[in-house]
Amino acid sequence: MVLGDYGLGILPEKGQGYRRHLRAVSQEAHRLGLRVIASVCPVGYSSSLLRRDPNLAEGLPVRRALFRVRGREASLVPDPAISLTEGGFEQWQGDRAGGWTWQDAPGSATFRDTRVGHGGGASMRMESFGASPKPGTVWVGQSLRVSPFRQYRLSFWLRTEGVDPPGAVQALAITPSEQRLSFQDLDVAPTQDWRRYDVVFNSLANREVRLALGVAGARGGRLWWDDVAVEEVGQLNVLRRPGCPLVVEGDDGTRYQEGRDFLPVADPRLGTVPWRGAYEAYHPAPPLRLAPGTRLREGQRLRVSFYAPVLVKRSQVTCCLSEPRVYSLLAQQVKEVEGLLHPWGYLMFHDEIRVANWCAACQARKRTPGALLADNVRRCAALVRRAHPKAPLFVWSDMFDPSHNATSGYYLTNGSWAGSWKGLPRDVGVLNWNYERRARSLPFFAKQGHPQILAGYYDGDPSRIAGWLKDARGTPRFSGVLYTTWQSRYGDLEAFARAAWGGKG
To answer: Which of 435, 370, 437, 440 has the alpha carbon at shortest distance from 406?
Structure first.
């Protein structure tokens, strides 16, 4: 039985009641003849680790953002000044929105609406998604000139009515080469009144960004967009750790000192809202405040460089793979779990690592993401073995599978994950969830010498495991299946067991 509870990552905060319940679960599992496997090392979904220190998030670089001194502080000056054309959807030619570079199916799936709006006299309505050239996919968008490696905020108001599925609604920042710069889920309800959204992205090395609003995979309903805006933002969620240096320079190259010329920089909302270990996509960024006796002068231009995390999906933020304090906290977590539970085995949570190899700590090592992860998982395995030398070790498959996520172009990873599997000790068991490419994935890990368990179900058809088991026949060191639910759906457990074992106990 795998215990994947978030509380295992924050045991010092948990009271005696939680610890007592955890021991009771472990004891009952032992009575039933179940072996307990505890989850540790949250390298992909890192909120429990970042709850202890939010500055350990992997950060994307913001380079030479323009600030200007006014009074006792310096604030961001947009460079270049940018603005959307007709973000309020006020100018139209029939059902074609003025100022927007592209618009799918005007008059068929996209419409001017003067009856429903958030501000002004009109809004953009989308419906009849099947009428689009690509049924179910409808976009409106335009291109903007930006500076490389700056933070930008895309904001808009959205209203929905019976949208199916609501997850089809998206707001994207894309490069001219079609690389996505934003991966935030919008958390849209099928039906909701006007609500404001903020999507923050880093321009990376690009001087042009395409913004797109719309739906992908929509089956029904309708929605309205209004009051769309874009702005450059300053020291939002600025990270402060050795591997994320903050640099403040003048136009003449003079480097100004924290404490002497400006007060210590920190974003008090970093990793604390709505709870510790969670990050807001957007809030007003604190200014750079001048210190007494500063060398900075009124009106002076500054170039400020720093690092900031980025949200993926609804709330995922990933830890740095290189900062030394990450490993001291992981060692502490393993020690705490071992002391409380002494589990039979451990599962290392290395999965879906979507941001990596950007901060100065990672860049200084001059390695690919794959090499960084190989070193990381090797070190994590050693931490567990130090605490419990004989404990069986397991890991999720995706970040070590070249037919899954261990490749290039994965979300906001700076480089390729290829070679990550070279850091996995051969006796680490792989929880393989690559059903779609099982014909390649199973032999790959078998060739590496790893034991494998099929991580099936995923809140879908419980009978599908039978076909996967058939495909796995003859795979060396294949040892079983794992009922894997992310929605706490245990009602299909017996059906899954019957499909896996043919009704036998």
So the answer is: 370
Q: CA distances (Å), 314 to each of 214, 311, 500, in order? A: 18, 7, 33
Closest by CA position to 450, among listed 426, 421, 478, 433 = 426
CB 66 within 8 A of CB 374: no
Nearest CA to 248 out of 66, 79, 81 is that of: 66
Q: Which amino acid is at 103?
A: Q
Say how far apart CA 222 and CA 285 lie, in whole Å: 34
Which one, of 309, 270, 335, 239, lies nearest residue 9 by Cα?
335
**Does residue 336 sit in helix, strand or coil?**
helix
222 strand-pairing partners: 161
Instruction: Indicate if the alpha-carbon torsion angle 92, 94, 95, 99 is positive or negative.
Output: negative
| Cα(450)–Cα(428) distance, integer angstroms | 6
493 CB-near residues (< 8 Å, 6+ apart): 483
End-to-end CA distance of the chain: 17
pLDDT in tens, 182-196: 999 999 999 999 999
User: Do you know the residue count of the chain?
Assistant: 505
Torsion of CA 472, 478, 483, 484, to 10 degrees: -90
| Coil, strand or helix at 166 | helix
Question: Mind giving me the DSSP string for 15-52?
Answer: -HHHHHHHHHHHHHHHHTTPPPEEEE--SSS-HHHHHH
User: Judging by DSSP bridges, how do beta strands 169-174 and 208-216 pair with one another?
Assistant: antiparallel
3-state secondary structure of 383: helix
Closest by CA position to 392, among listed 427, 340, 422:
427
Q: Which of 305, 353, 325 is nearest to 43 (CA)?
A: 353
Instruction: Please tell me the distance from the alpha carbon of residue 44 to that of residue 288, in angstroms, as a whole number.
Output: 32
Q: What is the DSSP letter of 87?
A: T
**Per-residue pLDDT reduced to its tens digit, 30-56:** 999 999 999 999 999 999 999 999 999
> Which tens digits make up the pLDDT trace of 438-477?
999 999 999 999 999 999 999 999 999 999 999 999 999 9
Give the span between the Cα atoms of 328 and 244, in whole angstroms: 18
Instruction: Quote the radius of gyration of the chain (alpha carbons, Å).
Output: 25
Q: pLDDT at residue 483 above 80?
A: yes
Distance CA 432, CA 421 (A): 13
Q: What is the pLDDT of residue 490?
A: 94
